[in-house]
Amino acid sequence: MGKTYDSEKEVSIEVSEDLKNEIFLFIRDWKNTRAWLMTRRKDTREIMRPVGSFINKDWSVGTITQDLHIKTTHVKNDPITGYLWVEMDSERYGRMDYPRNVWMQGSADLIDDEKEVKNFFDKRSAATGRGDAHPTDDTYKRMLINTKPEYIRAEGFYKDNPMRAVIIRDFSLHINLTDDEIFNTLNNERSLEQ
After folding, report:
1. Which 3 state secondary structure label does DSSP give 149?
2. Which residues contact 78 (CB under 8 A, 6 or more apart)?
3. CA nearest 62: which of 75, 71, 72, 52?
């Protein structure tokens, strides 16, 4: 279709499969990436805001919110959500000098059960060392936005041509890394950077 299109088109399914673990680790690396959550207003216009996120090995993504936050109202009204993760202070790629990034589109559930919210914090703490840093008092209720992915587009990961998109559409297989492998990989990368 043309040189520019060919340089940006989707990589093969086999390449996407080979890069799944790397993309997962990129999303999980909360120290070197920043996340933005996209929700939709009543009139379906999108809005994004920076958030903390945690990806599980089944590709679902959790973000803590409060019952008073507008993003909570948006998810109640419309479960379509999206996340954008962008690498901070990294080597850039392509003609436009982009940072590596991942876009996920999915459908979210709001979880208000206190035990499930606590389980989320416990799981995140065990996996990252990052515990419950969210303030809490009697004026609001903490909730979990749990997004199940439907589509992922990652850019900057295919070494032969980083402008080519890695697309993931099948989330039936969980990540095959152990918790220790994930933790050690992310912590070894951090210690090498320091």
Report:
1. strand
2. 39, 40, 42, 44
3. 52
Residue 148: CB atoms within 10 A of its CB come to 16
pTM (two decimals): 0.87
Tokens representing residue 74 in the block: 């948006």
Q: End-to-end alpha-carbon separation of the chain, Å?
A: 45
Number of domains in the chain: 1
184: Cα separation from own chain's centroid: 19
Domain with 131 in it: 3-186
Q: What is the pLDDT of residues 30-52, one digit of tens each?
A: 889 999 999 999 999 999 999 99
CA 38 to chain centre: 11
> What digits encode the pLDDT tens for the residues 148-193?
999 999 999 888 888 889 999 999 888 888 888 988 888 875 444 4
State the virtual CA torsion across 73, 78, 79, 80 in degrees, nearest 10. Answer: -120
Biggest alpha carbon–alpha carbon distance for the chain: 59
For residue 14, what is the domain's CATH number?
Answer: 2.30.110.10
193 occurs within a structural domain: no
Burial class (CB in 10 A: 0-12, 13-18, 19+), 57: middle
Structure tokens at 75: 């998810």
- Residue whose C-alpha is closest to residue 30's, from 150, 182, 173: 182
